Amino acid sequence: MNKPFAITLDVGSSLLNKTGSWRTERPVYLDRLPPCNNACPAGENIQAWLYHAEEGRYEQAWREIMQNNPFPAVMGRVCYHPCENACNRVHLDDAVGINSVERFLGDQALREGWQVEPGEDTGKRVMVVGGGPAGLACAYHLRCLGHQVTVYEAAAQAGGMVRYGIPKYRMPREKLKAEIRRIEEMGVEIILNTRIDDIQGFKEANGFDAVFLAIGAQQPKRVEIPSDETIQQLDAVGLLRAIEEEEHVALRGRVVVYGGGNTAIDVARSAVRMGATQVTLLVYEAREKMPAHEMEIAEALEEGVEILPLRAIREIRDGGLKLEQMVDGEGQWPQASGQFETFQADLVVQALGQQVETDLLQNLAGARVEDDALQVDVEMKSGCEGIFAGGDMVPSARTVTTAIGHGKHAARSIDAWLRGEQYQKPVKHELVDIDKMNTWYYTDAPRTVRPMLDIVRRQSGFAEVVGDLDEINAAYEARRCMSCGNCFECDNCYGVCPDNAITKLGPGNRFEFKYDYCKGCGMCATECPCGAIKMEPESI
Amino acid sequence: MPHQQVKFYQTGTLTVGNRLLDKAQRTVQATMDRSNSLDSGHRACQGCGEALGARYAIDAAMRATDNQLIAANATGCLEVFTTPYPESAWRIPWMHSLFGNAPSVATGIAAALRVKGRQDVRVIAQGGDGGTTDIGFGALSGMFERNDDVLYICYDNQAYMNTGVQRSSATPGSARTATTMPLGAEPGAEFDKGKNVPLIAMAHGIPYVATASVDRLHDLEAKVEKAMSIRGARYIQVFVPCPLGWGSKPADTVKVARLAVESGLYPLFEAEYGELTSATKIRRKVGVADYLKLQRRFAHTLKNEAQLARLQAVADNNIRRFGLIDEQGD
After folding, report:
1. Which of A179, A233, A366, B169 could form a disulfide with B195 if both were Cys (CB 3.0 to 4.6 A apart)?
2. Number of A:B CB contacts under 8 A?
C-alpha cells in the first residue's frame, strides 16, 4: 500500500459502474414503414429516395426509384400520388410534393442519360403481351434479373393507355418515349403492330419459358341511349386514341361528356383545347362522389369545363338531350327522380369506363375470367401454368401506378418460378403514424407549388399544364420530408442521453446503444423526431 | 447573388445535429469527438436533466477553451452522483470543497492561474440552485462584485433534490416539495417568495448573464460559447427538470423543459453589464397547464383555479417583460 495519507482506495472512472443494470426497458433502433411507402401501389421506397435527394444526390435518388419503378418521369406526371394523401406532413402544414420531386428526378435522368445495367444472363426467355405500363415494367424488372424479354404490342406505339388514353397536356410524349427507349437499351425487344391471339401456341412455338399478360382494359363500356341520330355519339377511348394518332376529330360546338371519371375529365379537357365552345360533364353521381381525382376536376373547372352532377341521359331527340335528374342514393346508387329537362348539345362522348377484351382468354386453359377481369393469385399467376398477368386486365384500381406495381411483382414471381421457387413478399415493417413522432423538431416549410401554365394557353393547346421544379426547389421540397420511421441521423438521441450511453458511428452508419450504461430513461425515444426508436421491456 | 443558399427545412436547426448543415452550425453535442466531460456510469436518476445540462454546458465550454478548463463544484446532486469516492465521472480537472463556497474556490483557482501566467486556462464554478441561490449566495455575490474571471453555471431544478426535495429560494410558487406540502388555503410553495438570481446577477453589472434550458441546445451552447469569449464574472442559469423531485416521467425531461420555455414560465434571455440584450422567442405558445400537468409537484394546481390563474399570470408577465413573443411570429 503505497498511497498518500488518508487515501485507501485507487482512483477510478465511473465507467466501472455499469448503470445498465438499472434498466427495465431498453431502447431499440428500428425502421418503421413510412405511410408514403405503404400507400405506393408501385412499392417505391419514397422516404429512401427523398433522403438522397435532400443532399442533392439526384442520381442515387433516381437509382433508388428505379429499384421499383422504371418510369419516374411518367409517374411524376400521371400518378395520382396516394403517397401524398398518406403523408404525415399534413399534420404540420401540407404533404410533401413527392410527385413533383419524382418528376424532377425522372427528367434529370433523361437529361443526364443515366442508364440501368441488365442482370447477368440466365438463359431464360419471357414473353410479355402488351406494351403498356404493366408489361414494360415487368419487362424491365425481368431484364434486371437477367432474363431475355420480348414485348409484343398490338398498337403502333408502346405505352398502352399512358400513350393512348392520357392526353399530351398531362403526359408529354417525348418523356414517355425516352423512358421506354431506356428499357429497350437494356436489351428488351419490343415488337409493335403484333397482336397475339393464341398465347399458349405462340409461347411454345417460340420457345418462351414464361408469359406475362398485360393487355389492359381497352374496350369502352357503352350504354344504349335511344336516339334519333341528330346528335353524334363517340366513345372516350376511341376519341383519345384518335387524338393521339392525329386523326381528324371534330370536337367542336357544344360537347357533352357523359361520365365522371378521370377519362371523362381527359376528354373534356381535350375538347377545351380543340376549340369546343362549351364543354359539359354530365355525371351520374353527386359532385362529391365523382370518381375523378379532385386535382383533375379542379384543373378542368379552371379551364372552363362545366359539371352537371346527378344527371342521366335518357334520350337523344331533335338535337337535344333528355336528361333525368337523379337523387343521391345515400351510399346507394343514385335514384331516378322522374324530373326531366332538355339539354342542347352537338356531340356526346360516352366515358363510362372500360372493360377487358376477354376473347383471347377463351382458349387459355385454366384461365378464369370473373367480374370483367382475369383472376390471378397473390403471385400474379393465372390458372394456366407459366402464364402470369397484371395491369388493368386483372382485378385492380386500374391506375398506371398499380400497373407498374403489378409488373414488378409479376417479374419477381416469374423469376422465382423460373428457378422452381415461390416468391415471398418481404415482411412489411410496422407503420409509423404521427403519434410515434416528435414533430417539434420540424420547422414550418410551406409546400412548393409547381408553376402552372397560363390559363389561356391551357385552353388553346396541348402544352404540358404542370411545370417543373428546378434543382433548388426540388431539394427544398425533398427536405420537407420528415423521414417518418427511418433514422436520418439528426443526432438527437446521441445528444439528449443524460448518460452518454449512445455511440455515434459516423455519417451513414447511424448509432449504437451502450447497454452497459443505458438506464432506460427513454428520452432518446421521446425526442426522436421520426419515431425510429422503440422502448422494449427488458427481460429480467 | 451568384449562389442561392438552400435552406434546410426538414428539421431546421432545432435538432442536435443535422447532416445537411454546415459543420460550423452543428452543435458540439453532434460531434463524434465531443469531450463527454461528464461520462457514463454516473449515478444520476433516469432522465436526469442536471446530468444532461452539465454535459451540454461543460462540453461547450471545453470546445470554446480548447479543452483548457478547470471546474469547481458546489455540494449537491451534481457532486454526489458524479463523484462517489474514489470514482469520478468527470473527465476534466474538477474540485469539490463545500456546499457554499464554490464561487470562492473558483476565485482562488482563477487567482492562482493569473499568478502563474496561465491566461489560457479558464475556470468554471457550478452548482445546483440550493448551493447557488441560498447557501453559496454570499460567495457568489462576492465573486460577481470582484468581477473574478469565472463563469458560474447554476443548474436550476428548483429545490434541494439531493437531500430529499426541500424547498429552495428557486422553488416556484405552488410547487410541492417535502417542506411545502400541498395543504391549506395556498397549497405548495408560497408565491412572491424566493429569489430571481439572474436578475440579481444583472444588478451586479457583471459582463454577462444568461438563462438557458436543456431543451434548447443550440441556444445553450451559444450562450456558453459567448460566456467563454468574455473575461470577468459571468453567470448562466440552466433549467434542468428533475424527474424524481418533480414527479415527471424520466422520458419527458426535455419535453418538460420545452413546455416551461414555451409557456413563458422560464424566460430565456441574455444580459450584458446589467442590460438585457436578447430574449429567446417562444415558438409555439402553450398555456401553463400543458407544462404543469406533466409533473406531480403541480398536480394540485390543476384543480385550483386561483393558483392556475396566478401561474398563468407569472408566465404572461414574463412574456411581456422579456419580450418572448415576436409580434411577427416566427
Report:
1. B169
2. 164
